[in-house]
Structures are given as C-alpha cells and as structure tokens.
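Why this split exists: single-chain examples teach little about how molecules sit against one another. For that reason, every record in the complexes split bundles all components of an assembly together and asks for one structure covering all of them. Below is a record exactly as it appears in the raw files.
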Amino acid sequence: MGRSRSGSGSGRSKANSGSSSRSGTAQPANPITNEEDVEPLLFEASLGPNGSVIRGSPIYSVRDAAQIRRTGMNIVVCGSSEVRNQELAARIEQESIAGEAGRTILPCRPHRQAGPEALPHYHESPRYRTGHTFWETDERKAREA
Amino acid sequence: MKFFTPELYRRFTDRHIKESIKASKLWDVADREYTAHLKSIQDVLTDGARKLSESCFHDRIIDSVSHSSLDLDSRAFRLPDHSISTTTVVLRNLDEPAFADLLMYFGVVQIEEISHGIEYPFHPNANEWRYDELYLQKNGFVQHILLGNGKELVIPFSDVAIYRIRLPNPVEMASVG
C-alpha cells in the first residue's frame, strides 16, 4: 500500500500550526512541538472484526480528509506519535464541521464492547452524519488492508 | 458513574492533547476495573442484564423514553395481584437508520436524572448515549447512563429485554396510506 504525507495541499502536515478558534467548538490549544518528527499518515478507513480499523486509500491533505468526513466516511490517522495523531485527527474533524453553527467535535475512547482492536476517534456533536476520524495510539494500531 | 466519571470524560476531551492522553490512560484503567466488576457479578445477572452489559449503545440517539404500568386483573389472568411497570427506551443509530433498538426495563419504579454541572464536552442538544455502567442492587439491578447533554440517567430494574426492530420505510408507509 502506498503511503501519503498529510497536510493541506502542500503535501506536508500542518499539525503543529494549530487552527483558528471558533465559538462553541473544540480546538487543540497547544501546538505540539517536541514530539517525534514523523508526520502522521492519513487513510480512508473501514471497520473490521474485533473492532479493528482497516486502512484504505491514502489521503494527501487535511482538506481532502475533511471533505471525505463530510460525506460520512471513516478516516484513520496513523503514526508513531499518539499526540500528533490525535492532534491531527482533531484538526480534520474540526475542519469537517467548519461553517456549521452549533456543532462541536468530541473524542471518544475505544468502545469496550466493540472489540480489543477498536481505536479512539473523533466525531461531531450533536451527530448528524455517520463515520469517525480514528487515530492510532501507542498501543492500538489500524490494520493494513 | 463510578468508573467512567463525567470528570474523567471531561479530562479526556480536554483541548490540550497531552492532558487528553493522560486521561485516556486513566480511562483504560477504569475500563479494566469496570470489566473486572462486570466479571464479578456475571453469575447473578439475568440473561437480559447480561446481554445489556455486553451491548454497545455508544452514540445511539435516544429517540424516546416512555413509562407504563399495567394493572393485571388477577381473576382474568390467574395471576397474583400486582402491576408490571415497564420503561421502554428507543434508540436510533445513524449508522443503521433502518433499525431501532428497544430496551424494555421491567420493574422500574422511578428513573432518576442527575445533572453534573459540567459544560463542555456536553451539548444541550446531544441526546446521545455516551457511556453506561451496570451494578447490582436490592431486588435487581441499576444502570447508569451518561448522556451527551451531560445528564446521567439512573434506571433501577428487575430485568430487561433488548430488541432490534426494522423501521417501516416512510415511502412505503405513505403509499399504503
């Protein structure tokens, strides 16, 4: 499977740059600067057995990932830094609800009943559409397709 | 909520990612402790309560909560005089819009509603099932459900039945009408 660099158009991740604040929305407030210098990778995702998240096609920008989320599809952020993965997942989900009044984003822990391979994820709140933005943690990883 | 407390949930949703990750480690500890708690009570759960403890309703939207009490006529039904109180919770799933889950709790005297006074991450319009816990109590069980609007429902019950139903297609219903 091919791998992609995440970012907004330039092919580079802007996960460290933070994002603009909107009233009533959740924002990662602290730029991450001291984590490993390995950019997270973005993939479309599907759900598998035992709660697993399976990587699909690579995605090359946060903007594209947010657009895919708007259609109700799943995304997964993969990488060796849990902090950067979560920060980028938050950015994608935040961008996916840009311009939608009264919406916010929420992280959720893996669901115990979903299975041992379930990943934490963001989705919007209140929920009006399907899908999630998952991220890999130190202990929990997505499956290769 | 003894394990997945609203405060722990708030910390997990902290906008500072490093704080969120710290809380997520605590959440994993709580998850292990709650799993051990469930294992310790498995032998006394009814089939319905066991199924409830194994079910995942996270993110389901609570469509309705209704309560009814039917007074049985002991002569007609040849049963002891008593009433069966039933609380029905209807859950909808965005991922499966053609279906709904029905939770029928039996023996419910009263549902308690607790407000936690924590604003974010809760949203007043988020009528969604977040996390739940099940405990034993005298003459049955009690389930605590943390909702997306920050309220906690406390449902004492003697038994529970869970059904999944296929919803009627609105287009087909309109053509019949």
